[in-house]
Amino acid sequence: MVFEHQREYSSQWQAVVSIASKIGCTAETLRRWVRRAEVDSGQRAGVTSDERVRIKELERENRELRRANEILRKASAYFAQAELDRRPKR
After folding, report:
1. CATH topology assigned to domain 1-46
2. SS (H, E, C) the chain
3. What is the rounded distance in angstroms from the CA atom of residue 79 to the CA atom of residue 86?
4. What is the pTM of this model?
5. Shortest CA distance to 23 belongs to which of 34, 39, 7, 36?
6. Cβ distance 17 to 34 under 8 Å?
7. CB-based contacts of 34: which residues, under 8 Å, 6+ apart?
8. Is 40 exposed, middle or buried (0-12, 13-18, 19+ CB in 10 A)?
9. How far apart are CA 89 and CA 85, in angstroms?
10. 72-88 tens-digit pLDDT
11. Under 8 Å CB-to-CB from 26, ≥6 apart: which residues?
12. Span 11-47, pLDDT tens digits
């Protein structure tokens, strides 16, 4: 709505304030939605919503892999020590 009616106002902020009161949200909330829409459509620089989702997925996967590597490292050390303890002593 902001993009459609922006021409009727002297600034985008005035359009945001007017439309926000009509749809029942704060002007700041609507402003953020407008900025997000601008980024997603390529009108404004930034990370798109799809990219944000992908980054979060990659960060989660990275944490899981680090956790798994730590478990494997500890298990490897444990079994290496068990093998040393098992060898006959001369």
Report:
1. Arc Repressor Mutant, subunit A (1.10.10)
2. CHHHHHHHCCCHHHHHHHHHHHHCCCHHHHHHHHHHHHHHHCCCCCCCHHHHHHHHHHHHHHHHHHHHHHHHHHHHHHHHHHHHHHCCCC
3. 10
4. 0.64
5. 34
6. no
7. 2, 3, 12, 16
8. middle
9. 9
10. 999 999 999 888 888 77
11. 20
12. 999 999 999 999 999 999 999 999 999 999 999 999 9
Q: Which amino acid is at 63?
A: R
CB neighbours of residue 9 within 10 Å: 15
Structure tokens at 90: 């001369």
Torsion of CA 38, 39, 42, 44, to 10 degrees: 80
